[in-house]
Amino acid sequence: MADAQNEQLERLIAQIAKGDRAAFETFYDMTSARIHALCVMMLNDRPAAEETLQDVYVAVWKQSHNFVDFKLQPMTWLIDITRNRALSRLRNARRSERRPDTKPVVQLTAPTQGDAEGSAILRPDQGPLARLDMERLQNLREIYLRGLTYDDLAARNGSSPRTEREMLKSDLLCLPAESAETLSPAQADQLLAAELVLGLLDEETTEATLNRKADEPDLRAIVGGWKENLAPLTAGLTPIMAPARARQRTRETLGLIAAPLAEDPNEQNPRYLRRLLIALLALAAAAGLAYIW
């Protein structure tokens, strides 16, 4: 089922890259409720979430031609676009000291060990996260879905940012706490890539890592791997239907309101034929009048 959906989304993205408005509408219908839920969860502000949702689908239209270059599954690609924009908004809010309301708009509940269905939703089947216990996995999920920083974690848990980073390092790399102090270069790159995807790096380190990623295919592949590893953490979110105005404003931004649906150039266009027929009739009428006169 997942493979079939991935194939359908990939086909739609390829059609969107060719300017196919109908494919864009279908893609929006298939994904927007889940993406809106992620926006609401991360931003804790419905107007900001709606604006971010619009930004995401504008980016989809504009970046679809580069989709294959990302080497990600369609939903991972879409989730990555969403989180990048939501994290940018959160950082801007922190800089201007406009923090979101502390009361969550959407509750993030944690399934218990005995909740088989809930555990299946929360726990990935494979990869490094599959080894975490439920408490540590829930901690990682909150970082991923709420955009928490090490400072946020330290304030919540009454610890220090350094302690929180050491604990997360152990979780991400599946290392015993006593072995997490000294990392090999390969382990250091794994941690750096994971922190980049989670949005835990400061601005200077983020920029330096992105520059390295652009130049180093190996690091680029590691970052992509972490995007795939972490994307399943969104699977337990309850979809939230996007407001109709969000779709309308997205269309307006892209100039798609009056644009026709994309058409196969190999198919005959009925409107073109009608216009041609009208033109021929007008010419015939003009010729008839000329003959009479």
From TrEMBL:
InterPro entries: RNA_pol_sigma-70-like, RNA_pol_sigma70_r2, RNA_pol_sigma_r2. The keyword Transcription regulation applies. Residues 30-95 form the RNA polymerase sigma-70 region domain. SUPFAM superfamilies: Sigma2 domain of RNA polymerase sigma factors. The keyword Hydrolase does not apply. Coiled coil: none annotated. Keywords: Sigma factor, Transcription, Transcription regulation. Pfam families: Sigma70_r2. This is RNA polymerase sigma-70 region 2 domain-containing protein.
